[in-house]
Amino acid sequence: MQKLGEFVMSKLDKDGDGKITVHEVEEMVEETSEKLKKGVEPIRSLLQRYRWTAEMGVGYIACFYGGNFSHCFLCATAFQSAEGEEVMRNINELRKITSESTMKFVSHIGGEDGAIVVSSTGTNSNEHSPTDSGSERKVEIPSTTLLAAISSIDPERILRCMRSIYVGFLASLCAAVNENAAKFGLGLTLGDRITSFIMSVVERFMDQAETRISGAVEDGDARDSHVSTVSKAEDEKALVQKQSIQTTLAWTRLGVRAVASSLGVYVSWKLKDMAATWSTCHWGGITCIGAFCHLVGHKDAAMEEMLGFGLAGLGFAFHLRSFSKPAVPTLLSPLLMPVTLAETVLRSMTLTSS
Length: 354
Fold this sequence. Notes:
Layout: H1 2-12, E1 19-21, H2 22-49, H3 51-65, H4 70-82, H5 84-109, E2 115-120, E3 137-139, H6 143-151, H7 155-177, H8 179-221, H9 229-270, H10 272-296, H11 301-321, H12 337-353
Antiparallel strand pairs: 1-2, 2-3
Helix pairs in contact: 3-10, 4-7, 4-8, 5-6, 5-7, 7-8, 8-9, 8-10, 8-11, 9-10, 10-11
């Protein structure tokens, strides 16, 4: 432990003056971050360049081999539906808080560099060099420095951000581990899959009707001012019909979503494993077809849903042949190693809780 401490201190105290400053700590963090970015940058740039091809690959794996990672899928979907966007905003907020707290800390601690004194045990830091052999280093944090560090942090913002992150983590973990929570979470996810399929078809017909009525209203507005009373009445009727269709479409979305969510919860409660497999296959099919349509430059939501549904059916049938656990190809196993490890951990937690 002593050697480890000396190694850490030598890394932090770059100029060897026996003082660790806030700026030195920040430089160490920035250097580590830069090294990680340099290591990840080639992979990230490659994925950005071939983003839609990568999404097709991910969708294919989820559609035909997603049954091996059902717990990870439950965890991810629950996290996204519960607190996903809020958690990402709060993570960025924590980064902002860190930079603001550093500036406040330096201003409160006084001096030009905001040094945290590092000295040898039992000696004055000014009498001996901290790098002398046989001396044991330690960090001395005076009460004023500690108060400066505490006063530079806003506890309410920290608490709010951490609470949101905790709620998102807890929701995703419960959905993957607890049986009843998994059924409800899976039901909502399955309901969303059903809703997206139905609404893609319904909205297409609704949009066509709305377009026809909008055209009729615009034609009425463009007519000459010397029109008959009957024509004006027809235009007013068309305008009222347009507003009625818009209201109907909004309530149709709400009704379909409610019915689909209820149906999803019922199906997942009766057939949890089958529902999880189908949800994974459907998500993979939609992702794969959506990426393919983007590559070919064709955008049609209804067609994407229909083709995605068909591809999901093929993937689901492929899963049924292998009892929802199809063997992953050997070439894909190294790439899926992190996901496989996470799935193993979640399944072991599920067995332990059961």
